[in-house]
Amino acid sequence: MRWFWVDKFVEFESGKAAKSVKLVSLAEEHLHDHFVGIPMMPHSLVIEGIAQTGGLLVAEHYDFRERVVLAKVSKAIFHFVPVPGDQLTYSVQAHDIREDGAYVSATSHCGDRLHGEVELFFAHLDEQDTDRQLFDTVDFLQLLRMLKIFEVGKKSDGTPIEPPQYMLEVEAAQLSQK
């Protein structure tokens, strides 16, 4: 993810639900370019933040081995525009996760106010297209750590989510080469 529309995860239950937060900051360039003189967070970027939250929830279900991409926005209703200083909380519920994709619903809140209601479909990229790697494994592992998924994440039995072994092995091999 070159652009991050999530600052951190605050809840993560494997295969079921995730909650993340995004602080809308005046330092973000897109706020000044969308409507000159009226800094605001475009709803399309809110959808992307929700998609990043839901996409990681779906990807974790398969140990981050599947390449998950947003396939369809089937519903997006927004009640107001977020502005600098607002903290958005994205709450995503997974309804159906399958080998070929997933369906999630989500809400976005600013404090106690309902900001948005979104439904998304995700697809998995073709397994035979192995030439295209979306992310470097070690960089992706560092991103997951930075977003605090392993700090707050729980499996359905309540045990903590751990970094996948294959990621740790790639990281260890890379560190041993330095």
Q: Gist?
A:
By secondary structure, the chain is an alpha+beta fold. It has helices spanning 29-34, 43-61, 137-146, 149-152, 165-176; strands spanning 8-13, 17-23, 68-78, 87-98, 101-110, 113-124, 153-154. The protein has 5 helices and 7 strands.
Overall description:
The protein is an alpha+beta fold. It has a single domain, classed as Thiol Ester Dehydrase, Chain A (Roll). The chain is built from five helices and seven strands. The chain has helices at residues 29-34, 43-61, 137-146, 149-152, 165-176, and strands at residues 8-13, 17-23, 68-78, 87-98, 101-110, 113-124, 153-154. The model has no long low-confidence stretch (mean pLDDT 92).
Write the topology of this structure.
Blueprint lengths: L7 E6 L3 E7 L5 H6 L8 H19 L6 E11 L8 E12 L2 E10 L2 E12 L12 H10 L2 H4 E2 L10 H12 L2
Parallel strand pairs: 1-7
Antiparallel strand pairs: 1-2, 2-4, 3-6, 4-5, 5-6
